[in-house]
Design a protein that fits this description.
The complex is a heterodimer of chains A (415) and B (122). Chain A is an alpha/beta fold. Chain A is built from ten helices and 19 strands. In chain A, the strands form four sheets. In chain A, strands 5-6-4-14-15-16-13-17 form an eight-stranded mixed sheet. Chain A has a six-stranded mixed sheet with strand order 8-2-1-12-19-18. A three-stranded antiparallel sheet of chain A has the order 9-10-11, with no helix packed on it. The radius of gyration of chain A is 21 Å and the shape is globular. Chain A starts with a helix and ends in a 14-residue tail after the last helix. The chains are: A alpha/beta (415), B mainly beta (122). At the A-B interface, strand 9, helix 7 and helix 10 of A face helix 1 of B.
Amino acid sequence: MRYSVFSLVREGLKGHQGWPRVWRHPDPKPSYDAVIIGGGGHGLATAYYLAKEHGMTNIAVIEKGWIGGGNSGRNTTIIRSNYLFDESAAIYNHALTLWKTLGRELNYNIMMSHRGVLNLAHDEHEGRQLKRRVEANRLNGVDAEWLDAKQVKAFCPIINISQDIRYPVLGATLQRTGGVNRHDAVVWGYARAADAMGVDILQQCEVTGIKTADGAVTGVETTRGFIKTPKVACVTAGHTSVIASMLDIKLPIQSHPLQALVSEPLKPLVPCVIMSNAVHVYCSQSDKGELVIGAGIDAHTSYTQRGSLDIIEHQMASLCELLPPVSRLRMMRQWGGIVDTCPDASPIISKTKVKGFYVNGGWGTGGWKATPGSGHVFAWTVAKDDPHPIAAPFAIDRFYSGALVAEHGAAAVAH
Amino acid sequence: MFLITCPYCGARDQSEFTNAGEAHVARPANGEALSDEQWADFVFLRNNPKGLFAERWIHSAGCRRYFNMLRNTATDEILAVYEIGQKPPNVKTAGPATPSGEAPIGSGNDAVKVIRPEEGSK
């Protein structure tokens, strides 16, 4: 069923009893042309573009829990593309371009809000570095501008620009096309559109092994039986190392907890996304009115989807510094997700030494913003067995050649 | 939040400690003879198991000494603490039954747990 204002009115008059299931719950077929492991945003986007742009509709997405229940449901949904280096700007801006029309393309309201992203500067040196990034962004066609403290106050009145605080706001970069969207809607929209083209979404199905013969993938062992396939695409975020180790592939990835939290709902207070590298916190306000707050990873590795309280305490202190009125605000929920971090804070989108096994991971703390772009270039890489030009710099061999895309710090916020 | 038993100071809150990555990673002795691949493996590759993991910690707000710790990354259970230079002790821990599964107790990932018949309903 196509969603529109007419279908909404029609169903509203009938008591909303006629909405069909949004996607099927099929049993696994004995074989597929490709199997995608991981039913998050990136995995489902990969399936969608494989079906839509490469005609591969006999494919499956395997998810051990439910779709969108991992990092897709745990991130702070900030969308931006103001990365320093050409390779990063290319992929994140590719994603931003797709975000702009994705709701219409999927016929699903992803609640995309281009409300602007501020990256604050708190000292002269950081300001200089951010201005340099603005110029680099412009050369790459990424919209970016520099605001002084007064302009920051005009754009986001809640920010404290007093110059006698510990970390005064001297200015900020602004990406006006940046913003936030609705994580569940993106996952469900991709799932619905992929399902409509014949993609099987297999939930509550865990991959327990990958079979190979003569150095090529032949199928996957799952908790719902063996599935024959010549191509396996691994898009499992925190579990990327675990899946790769089934084929004795070692990746330069470490899995860390990353925590986020939301406050009780408020009237409109924060009109944009606020990010600060120096005091280290980022914040936006959801349509329900909750402040959505995040910061950095816990330093230890873990797979338990929980982190330490002192990390949250630090980011709360940072937020009170930036937005003093929130100091009496109560926090409603807190959670952790397991992020797969790379040494150079850039993702791995790559073929591997095993023919037919592809990896899309290592997005670390910043994967959500790339979802459509990541899925789009990864689908090309899987379908053609050849890296998409935008994905090529993110191959595994960069760790051996030295051609790292070192976005630590340069990405406007510490990863 | 962990309660970590520093071998020199006793049990303290995790916020007193700093994680220092994987333990028992030795710098190659024959650096001049290594290929680019071997160097990259030393510089960039670390184990990232879901299960038993040997790591270093430094008691940075205490005695400021390094020590090693064995922890199960699937449950965050701390299994042993031992001094730098010692070999990891043999310990038993309940890991996940499948590589990317969840352990019966201690997994923070209750929401995405796959319940199999033999595990019963939890």
